[in-house]
Amino acid sequence: MTANNFGLYLIITKPSFSYRKIAETAVKYNVQYLQLREKSLSDREILKAADEIMQVTNGTGTKFILNDRADLAFICGADGLHLGQDDISLCDAKKICGEKVFRFGLSTHNLEQVKEAVQLKPDYIGFGPIFTTPTKAKPDPVVGTEMIPEAVKLAGDIPVVAIGGIDGENLISVLDAGARNVCMVRYFMNSMHFETRVKETVKILNDYGICG
Hints:
By secondary structure, this protein is of the alpha/beta class. The chain has one domain (7-207): Aldolase class I (TIM Barrel, Alpha-Beta Barrel). The chain has nine helices and eight strands.
């Protein structure tokens, strides 16, 4: 494993079980990034969920990332913030969150956006959707596995997280295309076999020389 190969990136969106259970499983299997992405919750509910998660992740190797909201990330003391193409700029987010030990991720949906993201020097870049996914109300065009090698090359030392429609059936094709960091949302969040799937996925990543 190298610094930009951390394996599984977990995103929490409308889970079938508790935030605590998700956090405990992430810590148990050494998942390095755990993001809360709950767009339908109120600010108060987001902060409550963040607190529940961080009660488990604080002091562990699992970094808690909040999606979109720099203000709430600062308030709750998150380890990092993930920004989409329509969110505030990384520069403005840093003004809000400060320059303390904090990690920033940026979503990209094509190679041009990857190039632009690299100039901003985030801690990692999300790239996708690799496959069709209903997770977002207005999904971006599918990029397919063919663009993964170029995205990874363009990113250089910045980790690239493949995301969008990835599940147990197509994970290997994503890894074979060159991805070393992957995010699988529905595959985990919609399953009552969450921990088993995390365990199996981490094993597959380990077999590819990637730590989960």
